[in-house]
Amino acid sequence: MNYWLIKSEPDTYAWSDLERDKKTTWDGVRNFLARNNLKAMKKGDMALFYHSMSDKAIVGVAKVVKEAYADPKDNNWVAVDVAPVRKLKNAVTLAQIKADKRFTHMVLVKSSRLSVQPVKAEEFDWIMALGD
Predict the structure, then answer these.
(1) Residue 65 — very low, low, confident or very high, per pLDDT cuts 50/70/90?
(2) Closest by CA position to 48, among listed 79, 85, 80
């Protein structure tokens, strides 16, 4: 299993929207590196759900339920389907992550603008511990 972080502006698509919808198409990604990360996702992989812009926090955990396929809005790009697993009891903020030396090499810290990024297993576990 692999671990990922997916970002969304809460005004565009929030964690509460994913909980309500039970599943969504993660589309609209228009960055080549992020697209390659979408292509690498496998069914069953876990993804940290990050509210960008205003909140700047990881708020939940989603699961990849359908692997990469043509983005319905533009066949030159790809999408995956994700479903909610659970909301974190405590949102884990970007400030918390940056202040914790364990996350020095996390992609979120080094390349915070990337909308779909890999997460190491130990980083995922540390986030989960902070979120509980």
Answers:
(1) very high
(2) 85
